[in-house]
Write a structure and sequence with these properties.
heterotrimer, A: mainly alpha, Helix Hairpins, elongated, B: alpha/beta, Rossmann fold, 7 helices, 7 strands, disordered N terminus, binds guanosine-5'-diphosphate, binds magnesium ion
Chain lengths: ~475, ~210, ~90
Amino acid sequence: MSIKIRYLAPIEAAITQIEIWWRSGWGQDFVDRHLSPRSFALLLLQKDPNLWEQLPGNRQQDLEQLIATTQAQISRPISLEIAQARQEFAQAIEQTTLAEPNPNQRHWGEKIHKLTVNPISGFPILVLVLYWGVYKFVGEFGAGELVDRIETFFEEQINPVVNHVTEQAIPWPSLQDLFAHEYGIITLGIRYATAIVLPVVATYFLMFSLLEDSGYLPRLSLMLDRLFKAIGLSGRAVIPIVLGLGCDTMATIVTRTLETKRERLIATFLLSLAIPCAAQWGVILGLLAQRPAALVTWAGLIVGIFLLAGFCIDKFLPGSAAQFYIELPPLRLPKIRNVITKTWVRMKWYFWEVLPLFIWASAIIWVGRLTGVFDWLISGIEPIALALGLPKETAPILLYGFFRRDYGAAGLFDLQQGGQLTGDQLLISAVVLTLFLPCIAQLQMIIKERGVKTAVLMVSFIFPFALAVGYVLNWGLNLFQISL
Amino acid sequence: MDCHQCHQNHGSCGSKRSLRWLPFSENLTRPPIEPGGPQIALVGMPNVGKSVLFHALTDTYVTVSNYPGTTVEVTRGAVTLGDRAVSVIDTPGMYSLLPISEEERVARDLLISESFGAIVHVLDAKNLGRMLSLTAQLLEAELPVIVAVNMMDEAQRWGLTIDREALVAKLGVPVVLMAAARNRGVDQLREALADRLASTSVPAVAAVG
Amino acid sequence: MNDLSTIRSSDPHWIVHLETQDDAMLRKLTALGILPGNQIAIEQRFPSYIVTIGRTRAALDRETVQCIFVTREQRTDANSNSDSAMP
Ligand SMILES: Nc1nc2c(ncn2[C@@H]2O[C@H](COP(=O)(O)OP(=O)(O)O)[C@@H](O)[C@H]2O)c(=O)[nH]1
Ligand SMILES: [Mg+2]
């Protein structure tokens, strides 16, 4: 009953040879392995890198020899012959088991597919999707409408109550500050997480889920492949990058779907340098909404740095951009239930990721203020802020920015509400915070995925670079006496 | 990169992440998995419906997307087969036993390093011919394969029919036609799994004929 | 025999040869069903190539498409080593 594919005679001979070696002791290298010797033989013949490196050197030589003699007897690469034999087997089975009594029945998805990938209609569709999905829905609705409402609700309904109750319940003012007042866990940490970050992230994930369930994302990949090639990436990297506009930590995990080490490295680097997460760009969009010139400059700068950084790293890193291939599944109508579940699961993930950090931040700030370390740090950062042309009130925000970029952005939001920043200053701090160190969670993920060395290298580039860009920007704005 | 190892430490990894200092109750309501009992893996090319099927079998949520390459880690859950709970694993897609990308390696390494009572090869009915080449490799590896031909609803809409009996005869393993997203065929798959596990639980009987 | 990027028509062509020594490239093409003996059709060329192989649809870049050599007519010789004279 067991089926067996017959490969070309020289390949079968090589398989037999490896099976003999296998029985004479090679198999012991792979004890506890659950594939058949024939299967191992075929993988070794195709030089499976992982199995290969488990073989002792002398066996590697034997095998090398065997592969060479086998290859000499056939004209095409061994792996191609093997693939072809399997394919013929598979196709033969399809022929007798699958019938197509009514060919060419396709549905609406086909027409839309054509529209989304044709350059004439495809690029306008891409722009529309980004404009409506990202700018209008996430930016204006999520970061504007929703944040305003929840934030106002917090400021007017929750904070006064929390402050009042805390003052009644806790007699010591310094302990009151842990929960309430300007930097309290509830009045600051939880407020940032639920009122400022959550609405933006929720709307972004909702939009992303709709895009991915419809099957539009691989089409987006193919539309952008050429552009991405210029920055050392293939179109496949479009998906993690777009996801990064939601949450860079999640996106760093998803870079695993990229094929080469080089591509994963570039994608990880660009994600941490120039892709702001939804919480961050959402807040910044809200901040700069009243100043279109500053908004356009910010967006232009970040996009420019994204492209330029990619272009440079592509030039300096050995190797070349990975080849692009992606399957295009049929477009499907998103299933509302799946979209909602998925958005919910992602939000939950994000929220549980963010909330503890925000609470910790408040607690750390509290300890820092109590012990004076906070003031000391801030007085250390103030000169940097001043050098960037920022008022010294932004120093704490830069400090938060170390912790999480979105936390910093949320702090900026507070300052702006207080009317303490000029357009130029808003722009500079927005740019610096966008480029700043990745958030703690993302840093953890970079270490896990790319290793400590890479993480340290990235961080030690990104941090001075962000400040340098801020400095140059301030200098330029002053030089041309531009005020936005 | 190492995430296929998570399952040795935690119940699951991937889409779930709990607040570190709050107890999380996700796994409390499920029937306990027999320790040392058989496990089931769902494997197949990307975007064929493995995660939808996993969700249908286990009620554990995993990311489902209409594009290749979303599951980057393995996720574990429990499927109830009759009165026993069996551990089942959702894997990232793989095109062949020889991995192309990092995420594909996860699934392959799992197949090499762990023993399974059943391997469900999920494939897309519309692309049967292309996908059966992976079935061939799984059979070559003498793994206990069950073939799940998924997306039958879409195949029907495209005007395709599939002869299940003939497939069984050709492949010599159980074949289930299904549409996981419509919950069609999931019960048949459960039965096939229960049969397979019953027949392989006697260790002396070899799985391959 | 021409490489696929030079084909102007959208009719299916027969794949006769994959011109690459790169195992990773072969694996990718194989994964998509792009193998000698199968038919492939070009749907679109810009901004990326879109091809269909049977009921599979995929997007590829130029370098990848240039490895795929096709003919309009099916080779009649049954021997799968028919292109053994290739350089
Ligand atoms: N029409 C139809 N779509 C399905 C079916 N099963 C899965 N899908 C869709 O196929 C896509 C891929 O499913 P997923 O489970 O993520 O595939 P995976 O990559 O194999 O885990 C999703 O958009 C699903 O909604 C099915 O039986 N019928
Ligand atoms: Mg999946």
